[in-house]
Design brief:
Endonuclease Iii, domain 2, elongated, 12 helices, 215 residues, mainly alpha, Endonuclease III, domain 1
């Protein structure tokens, strides 16, 4: 079901033209803040994370600052966010590793990042791409849904989706495509009620074709 190269480029061009302002919507000032914000964003909207992090980052600016808190205290800081207990535990464990093993600096490789508690490939790719300019495709729920609907991927899980996207999308466009796919998922290709009637990719969409056959 994979798209041919010219079709892939056509889709990417449409996404670029539709979302020229696509960018990371997690507010951050440095790699450490982005790492913490991305850990917090799992199964939570960026909007909700951005409501919590300004006050948090004002008072706690470094991994050492975070380690002055107990887990219970951090839980209170982030309790508006889903899974806040496990996230608080992971954040403090990550800060401990950053202090003890990385001189309080966020590592710059996938291999090192995914060793941090609460950090999987998606989070690592977000940090690599947005903090360090490393080409990467972070597959969140939006990227997974959109890329499989429009045929850039045909995968059962996020890991397979990431591998397939890296094969079909030119490397120099990985990071940009990640953002435009997210924007499309948030603004048009909704999980339950996709706005197919206004979607610029409707002619490329296997999901829409299947819906049409069923109706």
């Amino acid at each position: 079901m994979g798209k041919k190269k010219d079709k892939v480029l056509e889709i990417l061009n449409i996404l670029d033209e539709t979302y020229p302002d696509a960018h990371c919507e997690l507010n951050h000032e440095n790699p450490f803040q982005l790492l913490i914000a991305t850990i917090l964003s799992a199964q939570t909207t960026d909007k909700k994370v951005n409501q919590v992090t300004p006050g948090l980052f004002r008072r706690y600016r470094t991994p050492l600052d975070f380690l002055t808190m107990t887990q219970e205290a951090l839980e209170q800081e982030i309790k508006e966010i889903g899974l806040y207990r496990s996230k608080a535990k992971n954040i403090l464990s990550t800060c401990k590793m950053l202090v003890e093993q990385y001189d309080s600096q966020v590592p710059r490789t996938m291999e090192e990042l995914i060793k941090l508690p609460g950090v999987g490939r998606k989070t690592a790719n977000v940090v690599l791409s947005n903090a360090f300019g490393v080409p990467a495709i972070a597959v969140d729920t939006h990227v997974f849904r959109v890329s499989n609907r429009i045929g850039l991927a045909n995968a059962e899980n996020v890991e397979e989706t990431e591998q397939q996207l890296m094969k079909c999308i030119p490397k120099e466009q990985w990071s940009k495509a990640h953002h435009t796919l997210i924007f499309h998922g948030r603004r048009t290709c909704d999980a339950r009620k996709p706005k197919c009637e206004v979607c610029p990719l409707v002619n490329h969409c296997y999901f829409h074709m299947k819906r049409g056959k069923k109706s």
